[in-house]
């Protein structure tokens, strides 16, 4: 339902800029709201704040003054997803019973377009991209949004009723939704992640569950039958349930049988014809097929994408081959499960480049996947933990460096022809980088400098 008029004459605090806050502020203003913007970055260094102030917005930068709540009667706070709920402004809003949203809720309220919401601990970006490409290949009206591409509320503002908005959703974004409803909702998998933000596994799961919880009987929940947590969370959906599995035979959904991918017991494509590398990507492919079949996409369009789509940047991305060494950029691997799946994708000897933000977890979950790892080159806050892991596994070549650029050079020095040099950090990037994209870009640049 379209509720744009709800925002007229409301006073709304946008907390945190970046892309989502900037887009939300502009759209709220266009829909008649009185918008106040607060961002911690100093004004002189804050291009987004400067642009908003030039456009006539009230902008407060450099700190988070609680006094804003005394000088304004806020009807709503929209926060950047990355801002924790411990933030003083968020806490003050909670005390005053002011609703707190992320811009995904705003996106939902600004359009009558249909949403496909994709979340999970791993595989979101690849699955989101696959769904979007399959819809396009079948000439459906589709837009891509959320954690990938354009901010969701900006996409929603220009979407038509018959559009599919294919939306990658993080737990941070979903935690700030109240009425958001995914016409097709997917949870790919759930493992321990972002517990520094959510504090408990239960809180993290509840955030993910938002992709199912407001669904109606005409909606569809796409469910990983191999993940007990996902199956349990899907109980919140009132929609049709469609399953995918790598290990089970599925009648209502997608599975693999005799090296062929099936949907609803009908063959779609032989596994050998799928271009996208890595066994873990089969899970993403099955989920994507389940989703697009709900939107009426043909088998021909699905095959067209699966025989041409080779992957997304920073997700087990092939970068180059140099003197017999192949370099792969998996910077998006910010947890143990993602790195485990990357390691399982290779049978050749691997030189693993890993390390990053220390969230307090140990690395034992990697041990059974390290059989092909001959060398570890490590960096960042968790470097000591990776050194310890290597010693426990009897890996003789372990090198600690300062950054990813040095890691590429050291990995090459320690490598031989036919080795895989794999950046798959198993950690978030924020100890040394603004984002995993920045980390991956440094890796790519360093590889090309070698050449």
Automatic annotation (TrEMBL):
Cellular localisation: Cytoplasm
Gene: murD
Annotated residues for binding of ATP: 120-126
Pathway recorded for this protein: Cell wall biogenesis; peptidoglycan biosynthesis
Keywords: ATP-binding, Cell cycle, Cell division, Cell shape, Cell wall biogenesis/degradation, Cytoplasm, Ligase, Nucleotide-binding, Peptidoglycan synthesis
Domain Mur ligase central as annotated: residue spans: 118-292
Keyword Repeat in annotation: no
InterPro entries: Mur-like_cat_sf, Mur_ligase_C, Mur_ligase_C_dom_sf, Mur_ligase_cen, MurD
Family note: Belongs to the MurCDEF family.
Broad class of enzyme this protein falls into: ligase
Residues of the Mur ligase C-terminal domain: 314-427
The protein's name: UDP-N-acetylmuramoylalanine--D-glutamate ligase
Pfam families in the record: Mur_ligase_C (PF02875), Mur_ligase_M (PF08245), MurD-like_N (PF21799)
EC number: 6.3.2.9
Single annotated GO MF: ATP binding
Principal localisation: cytoplasm
GO-annotated biological processes: cell division; cell wall organization; peptidoglycan biosynthetic process; regulation of cell shape
């Amino acid at each position: 339902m379209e509720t744009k008029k709800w925002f007229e004459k409301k006073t709304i605090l946008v907390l945190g800029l970046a892309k989502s806050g900037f887009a939300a502020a502009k759209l709220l203003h266009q829909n008649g709201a009185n918008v106040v913007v607060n961002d911690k970055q100093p004004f002189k260094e804050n291009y987004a704040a400067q642009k908003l102030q030039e456009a006539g917005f009230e902008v407060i930068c450099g700190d988070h003054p609680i006094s804003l709540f005394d000088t304004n009667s806020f009807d709503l706070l929209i926060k950047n997803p990355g801002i924790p709920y411990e933030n003083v402004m968020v806490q003050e809003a909670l005390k005053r019973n002011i609703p707190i949203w992320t811009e995904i809720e705003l996106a939902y309220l600004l359009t009558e377009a249909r949403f496909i919401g994709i979340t999970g601990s791993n595989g979101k970006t690849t699955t989101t991209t696959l769904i979007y490409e399959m819809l396009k290949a079948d000439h459906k009206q589709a837009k891509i949004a959320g954690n990938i591409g354009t901010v969701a509320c900006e996409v929603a503002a220009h979407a038509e009723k018959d559009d599919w908005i294919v939306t990658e959703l993080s737990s941070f974004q979903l935690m700030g939704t109240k009425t958001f409803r995914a016409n097709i909702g997917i949870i790919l998998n759930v493992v321990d992640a972002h517990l520094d933000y959510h504090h408990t596994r239960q809180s993290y799961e509840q955030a993910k569950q938002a992709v199912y919880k407001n669904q109606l009987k005409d909606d569809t929940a796409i469910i990983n039958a191999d993940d007990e947590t996902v199956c349990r969370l899907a109980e919140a959906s009132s929609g049709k349930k469609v399953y995918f599995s790598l290990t089970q035979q599925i009648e209502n959904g997608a599975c693999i049988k005799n090296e062929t991918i099936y949907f609803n017991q009908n063959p779609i494509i032989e596994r050998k014809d799928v271009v996208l590398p890595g066994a873990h990507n089969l899970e993403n492919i099955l989920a994507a097929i389940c989703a697009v079949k709900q939107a009426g996409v043909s088998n021909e369009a699905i095959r067209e994408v699966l025989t041409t789509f080779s992957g997304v940047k920073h997700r087990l991305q092939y970068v180059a081959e140099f003197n017999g060494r192949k370099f792969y950029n998996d910077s998006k691997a910010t947890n143990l499960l993602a790195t485990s799946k990357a390691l399982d994708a290779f049978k050749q000897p691997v030189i693993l480049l890993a390390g990053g933000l220390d969230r307090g977890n140990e690395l034992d979950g990697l041990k059974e996947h390290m059989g092909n790892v001959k060398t570890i080159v490590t960096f960042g806050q968790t470097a000591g933990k990776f050194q310890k892991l290597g010693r426990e596994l009897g890996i003789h070549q372990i090198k600690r460096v300062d950054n990813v650029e040095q890691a590429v050079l050291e990995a090459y020095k320690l490598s031989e022809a036919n080795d895989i040099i794999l950046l798959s950090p198993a950690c978030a990037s924020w100890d040394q980088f603004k984002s995993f994209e920045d980390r991956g870009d440094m890796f790519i640049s360093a590889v090309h400098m070698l050449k």
